[in-house]
Amino acid sequence: MARFRNKKKVAFVKPAKKQPTQNVDHVTGDKIPRSFVFSRLKLPATLKQLQADLRKVMLPYTALNLKEKKRNNLKDFLNVAGPMGVTHFLVLSKTGTSPYLREYSLAVDIANSQLRPRVPKDLFKNSPLIVLSGFGTGEQHLKLTTIMFQNIFPAIDINTVKLSSCQRIVLLNYNKETKLIDFRHYSIRMQPVGVSRRIRKFVQNHKVPDLRSLQDVSDFITKAGYGSESEGDEEGATVSLASDVGRVNKASTKSAVKLQEIGPRMTLELIKIEDGLCSGTIIFGKSRRTMMKKNLKEVKMILQNSKLCKTQPS
């Protein structure tokens, strides 16, 4: 009698639905910029802390725990940038004598200078808003700088964005006289208009108050350490809310928008713009000192291509 082999049963796997790429914003449809913040050569401890602060500024679309090794070079970061969808590098570098960046304050320095530092746990859950001031002069190198800063952070759609997701703001101000750029990083908080500071803090507090030793609830408001009314509570800029934001700011009410600096703070200066990644034609240079290491023939060709000046160097 013939034998029949048992046919192996093959399990049917339902094909998974094609998921949208994680590197595209589902609201605006724009590609989300991602970044690496790292250093070249060994940095002093303060600049290492500044590097950590800058990674927090770039959250959530950056590698917060990026590990660097001494043998890593720019090509190593470039090789992994493509598969990970990284679009921007923020590089802190140091020469043989001193670092390039000299005027800065760390986030911890900003917090120590404030009476009540404010860093909520969900502050870095969403990317910050970007505000540029003083860049609209019509000069080509400033236009390129504006585009670069705008593309570092994801674009937002003002028609669909939720106010609760707007937690931080990065402000860049260009001074035409000094030609310096002031970098500031703020947290955004909203306070209801027409509500006293004591009542507001009472409502925002998540802990159940202990009233056993008090005769009346008014004693708690005045004696339980909820701040004094003498602290300025001016309205500032106000917005009308379309939806609830937090426990106090309710829809159809007006809330005051206030900024509190959280750092880091930097003073930047545009030195050079190059075509390509740390190589290629110099599009803008603060002075000819940026070309000192190139021979005379290369300098003439660069000046002709980038049209930095009308006369040839002698």
UniProtKB/TrEMBL annotation:
GO terms, biological process: rRNA processing
Naturally occurring in which organism (per UniProt): Helianthus annuus (Common sunflower)
GO molecular function: rRNA binding
Name of the protein: Brix domain-containing protein
Brix domain boundaries: 33-279
InterPro entries: Brix, PPAN-like
SMART domains: Brix
